Amino acid sequence: MNFIDTRTLVLTVPHWRLIAAGITCEQLAAVVDSDRVVDATPIAVDHGVTLGIRRREAQKLCADLEIVVDDEELSVRRFNSVVEALESVTPRIEITTGGRCSFPTRGPSRYFGGDQALARTVVEQTLKALSVMFETAEVPRYIYPKIGVADSRFVAALAAASQTSSRIKIIAPGRSAAFLESFPVDVLASEESPLFGANDLVDVFRRLGLKRLGDISALPSEELLARFGSPGLLAQQLALGTDDRASLPHLISSVVLEESEIDPPTDRVDTAVFIAKAFADRICQRLAAEGLACVRILIEVETEHGEISSRLWRHERQFTPTDITDRVRWQLEGWWKSEMAPTGSLSLVRLVVDETIPDSGCQLGFWGEKTANDERAIRSFVRIQGLLGSDSVTVVQRGGGRRLVNIEQRVPFVAAKFDPNRVVALPESTVAPWPGQLLAPLPASVLPQAEKLEIVDSDGCLIGVSGRGHMERDPAYFQSETLGSHLIVGWGGPWFLEERWWDLTKKIRQARFQFLLANSMSHLCFIENGQWWLEASYE
Amino acid sequence: MQNAPAWLSSLSDIPQASSPEILAQHRTFPVVDELAGLFTDGGIRQGSTIEVTGAAAVSLASALTIAVSHSGGWVAAVGLPMFGSSAASDLGIKLSRWAFIDHPGDQAGVVIHALTVGVDLILIGPDIRLRSDHGRKIVARMRERGASVITIGKADLCNLRPDLCLRVSQAAWTGIELGHGRLTSRKVEIERLGRGADSNLRRELVWLPDGEGRLKTFGRRNKSVNLPRPSHRVSKPLVGIDELMSQAS
After folding, report:
1. Domains of chain B: total
2. What is the pLDDT of residue B25?
3. Residues with Cβ within 8 Å of residue A316, at least 6 apart in sequence
């Protein structure tokens, strides 16, 4: 095995999601992703908003909280300006996600005269980029960049995240294990780790009494391998600071590269992304045939005027074709909107696989977990997403409320993390009684948008409803543009719905009625401000 | 080879000696007991097309997916943006196994074709139209992969030929009158017409939904009336739904 210097610098800009969303620290705001708070301003934290709680709980803690939905694309795009500033330090910057990037320190460290000097230069450059972004000379303290330098990426990321007083933490060569010793095992499943999401493994470690990384590194590695398989061994390597990743020699038999001229050159990002999609599929197939998976990829695009945008992207686990296409889109859109925006049309797309790992594959669950069946279904949904756009495939997520449109919410399948065993209903603790809710049986079709209709008496005169919900006359006919005119053979109501009466702009006051028609169809309708609306049908 | 029967002289005889027990077309998707009477095989035949029409078509089509969603299968609904998920979960459907493609636009054919690979049941909404070549391709793929399609509304509109037609011939709500009461439950009579082995008319009476929004057999369990009756009997008009109700109560 040939030795590769894996010493890495990791730069983290805290609260990047807030910065990307354009929120300053004086505001009371939080960023949510899939209904969970992922970032909050210091003021929001003072109100008790913590990371990981649900959107509704956060709103309960402070009612004026501004909620911003996380937009990874935007966050990566805005991070571009920081990366551009750092390119004067080193050309080999790998962007992990918005607000976090890393690069190998071997060359730059020698050039700048040691890790400490390098880190200081990086901080300076980042601050400069941030102050341009904020248009202030003084960058707020709480978004001061954090830097970690260590022998492996994982250790460097932990060093960047862990420090409190100083903004730069440098772990001397060979001191990784000592630094890691006192960390809790939970960091193994954190975002920075290649074992991201291995909560089960960490849980077992904790129950076995292995509370710190030091406990894991002290165990004989054969035993760990025997008991936990390759994740166990990887956990120990991480705990020892010998990152499994970059020390692996490149196993690819030949350079995996896909490139193509775009003819005629295009101005549309979509066209280039579409071409990249085919490349990404081919690359992943080729690597899979060799039992490899891509963790770092170089994306290069060129315009007809010779301008080049070239970026390295790293994935914590492994790139799927969709991940690669996303990166291409982010890079192009970032480039388009930056100051160095290209003047010509795109003429070339190139993807080069830069680093690979052996593909450990995915063990399908025996009971209760993902099965082959689910994999197949998810694959066809992903295919449709590629065809129609990422929010074309939706799943049901139950919301709270009185009106059917509030209860029946759909979220894109991507946002539901493709989890086939997710819980659709609200958790018990947040199920509030909603007085005025409809009783079972509920209508089988709910119109996404209520439709206008008319309820008339036998003379054809429109019927109104009094303030107490009494019909002025007996309803005889139900008239709608889409459903036609039908005789009413039964009706019930009113059921009142009054929401947010304290807010003049958002208040709702409706009287709901059920109508049974002569064609044995029945509908749920409501009247608001003298206008009848069709809300749902009992089909 | 020592244990092989004497008459089995060579390996090439094996196919004649042992035919596969279950042919692909005889494999079925499970259906809840309340509706099993409508199916000759007691379940939805894999690769078949079912047409559901009538006043309670959406409820009936979703009721057909209850058992599949609970046994680990996947259901996809194409072109059903108005699907009422609360009613469906009251009916007993496990909604985490459902995915929706609300607006496939002019890509409906490609979308359904892609779904046949990974999904067990595909519900097609009433506004979806397919080109005839897409229809043929989809049917071929369904047979191959064993996925079944349920169309809400006429299957011909999607250029699919239904193997089984379920029609809600009568639907009667109870609990509501002119000016008082509310919709509480619906008695539904479902007629089945099919091809080949399913060509005889079958009827099933169910509560869809009952007072709690669930599916329930009406009267005795799995009571189904098989038609046509033997020819030596004097054909007499079908027992009306009202008569059956009065018998049951």
Report:
1. 1
2. 52
3. A96, A191, A192, A193, A194, A196, A295
